[in-house]
Amino acid sequence: MKKITLITLMLFSTASLTLGGLYGYVEWYGRKTQPQKADVIIVLGAAVWPNGPSPALFERITLAERLYRQGYARAIITTGGVGHLNPTPEGTAAKQTIIALGIPADIVYAEVCSRNTRENLMGALKIMREHGWNSAIIVTHDFHLLRAMKEAHRLGIKAYGAGVHETAMFRPPMVFREAMANLVATFK
């Protein structure tokens, strides 16, 4: 019985240390990553509410707008399809909001079929290829940036990151989710 207890304790301790370390790394990576000039800005999708973008999506839109106005890229791609509760595709809602903020409509493109980060980036890559763009700034929340950047690089996108640092969301469960997702992605 003592042997089983000891093994269980060791496994729990190892799992806790691994997840804790990854949690810290996810936070560190997202906060230290800085954007660089690129051909296009890719805004990863987030929920849409009946009256428009959720606070999380609006935070990403605001960062993309700021980067565009600062001259980091000459075009923007918004991404995301229809979710379980989204009345409008995330990419469409984000595009409409960016245009309403005064960004020229002819430089904003929307990918509207994706359901996850990988599909967001695959759809954005298709638009990038159509326009001959090679590099992108991935805009998402800082705690999501590590996984998003890994995925972009797997797809062959020359990617830089820009993460939303201050959010209306409660961070700990979001960072924990991303730590778990990064751990799972390691074994895929």
From TrEMBL:
Name under which the protein is recorded: Uncharacterized SAM-binding protein YcdF (DUF218 family)
Residue span, DUF218 domain: 39-178
Organism (species): Desulfofundulus luciae
InterPro entries: Cell_Envelope_Assoc, DUF218, Rossmann-like_a/b/a_fold
